[in-house]
Design brief:
This protein has 13 helices and 17 strands. By secondary structure, it is α/β, with parallel strands linked by helices.
């Protein structure tokens, strides 16, 4: 830095440590907490027996993880595509009962609960059918396909008294739990703004999944798969890439934004819908016939807290939150978080006095040092702290929490109300994008309004 561009402000900021307010750094390794599950062996009467609905990309992962949990057994699986019957048997056992009709699982008295990973446009029906049949259910995120679906799901679950866990796993992340603890302790002071972002930059990340080679109306119940949306001829791309079309999915909002929103709500301690949302975006890279944006950014008011979230399917960005408070900045990633404290006071004379005549400026600085130097010298060293948790998977504890709740009847970490509020934020972002203007949530009519 040359003398010509070395400003008075920069000189004073670099000299601040001499007047107090210095910062030290500390790093802590988080240890995984034991899963809240019983140890083997268990009595057969304590084993939770579940049925799996949907054995696609996410469902096959949930199925494989669930059966590794102590005291959890898969009794049967359902999928409209016969190839996934084979997959379910490969994961569980060769003689696993399989069917195209998920209601057979709901009628099965040997099944205690359900795990479901189906396209978004089927969430409402599967959840309502499950709880009406007396089954608890784990449903993948986003909870609902539309705001109206979410309202109906909440009503049905409350009437049934069944347990519902929604599959946004950030609420079971130990990293997010540490952030929640730090915020609740007041380490950040007053919350000013929360921002989050996530991005991908590859075809698979943009849902350009390869359909199964043998997919056809002979081994897939195409008519049932389409549900109640207007019927179209068989299209394997719709089956594999349903997130791209609003009639089946909720786009980047329901796939990625819901993780950011649910994680933010959990950490900050919010369980309500945003009162206002405004979104921008577009189909800027993946011009493959989709009708959902591949770039989307949304600004919200959760109460009076401004929240800014952005998603991108053509630029890689690690999932990150920046929670900004009056006492510091908390940055949260998938396996780490860091807190940088901020004093919020002047630790050096105001650089505005560069506009004073020299004699006035010197008098101001003399008085400033006289009034502040001793106080600043007594300030404790400000400690920047980071936490790391390598190789942590939040899906396993999230499922464990669900099965333990089924066994104990204790509340889950992400119930139907929380899931509804998180999904509403996604629906509001999509509504704002398609309407081209700001939208609000009307709690009285339970609708999104422009």
């Amino acid at each position: 830095m040359t003398k010509s561009n070395f400003s008075r402000r920069e000189f004073l900021e670099m000299s601040a440590a001499a007047a107090g307010g210095s910062v030290a750094a500390r790093s802590v390794l988080l240890s995984p907490e034991p899963l809240d599950t019983p140890a083997r062996p268990m009595a057969p009467s304590d084993t939770i027996r579940f049925g799996m609905i949907g054995i696609g990309m996410q469902g096959s992962g949930l199925l494989g993880t669930s059966i590794t949990l102590p005291g959890v057994e898969c009794v049967a699986a359902a999928d409209l595509y016969d190839g996934r019957h084979t997959l379910a048997r490969e994961i569980v056992r060769p003689n696993l009962p399989v069917t195209r009709r998920y209601r057979e699982l709901l009628d099965n008295k040997d099944i205690d609960c359900i795990v479901a990973a189906v396209p978004d446009h089927w969430h409402r029906q599967v959840v309502i059918d499950a709880v009406s049949a007396g089954k608890d259910i784990y449903c993948e995120k986003p909870m609902s396909h539309t705001a109206a679906d979410g309202v109906a799901m909440v009503d049905a679950v409350k009437k049934s008294g069944r347990i519902v866990q929604i599959g946004s796993q950030r609420v079971s992340s130990q990293v997010c739990a540490k952030a929640k603890e730090m915020i609740a302790q007041g380490m950040l002071g007053d919350l000013m703004l929360v921002e989050g972002y996530m991005g991908r930059n590859d075809p698979t990340g943009a849902w350009q999944y390869p359909p199964p080679f043998d997919l056809s109306p002979q081994n897939l119940d195409w008519d049932t798969w389409q549900g109640n949306v207007p019927k179209v001829p068989f299209n394997p791309l719709y089956f594999a890439r349903w997130r791209c079309w609003k009639q089946y999915g909720t786009g980047v909002a329901g796939d990625l934004l819901v993780h950011l929103i649910s994680g933010m709500m959990f950490m900050v301690g919010i369980n309500e819908a945003p009162r206002q949302a405004s979104a921008v975006g577009g189909i800027r890279h993946w011009k493959d016939g989709r009708n959902m944006p591949d770039v989307q950014a949304a600004v919200y008011y959760f109460g009076d807290l401004p929240v800014y979230m952005r998603l991108n399917l053509a630029c890689e960005m690690p999932e990150t939150y920046r929670i900004q408070g009056s006492k510091g900045l908390l940055e949260v990633g998938g396996s780490s978080l860091s807190f940088t404290p901020q004093l919020g006071i002047n630790t050096y004379p105001s650089y505005y006095t560069g506009s004073f005549p020299r004699a006035m400026r010197e008098e101001y600085e003399r008085k400033w040092h006289q009034e502040n130097d001793e106080k600043l010298s007594k300030l404790a060293v400000q400690e920047s702290i980071s936490y790391r948790m390598p190789d942590f998977d939040d899906t396993r504890p999230h499922l464990a929490n669900y099965f333990n709740a089924v066994r104990s009847r204790k509340p889950v970490v992400e119930d139907v109300v929380f899931g509804h509020h998180a999904a509403l934020a996604c629906h509001m972002a999509n509504e704002s994008y398609f309407r081209g203007g700001s939208v609000t949530w009307d709690g009285a009519s339970k609708t999104i309004k422009g």
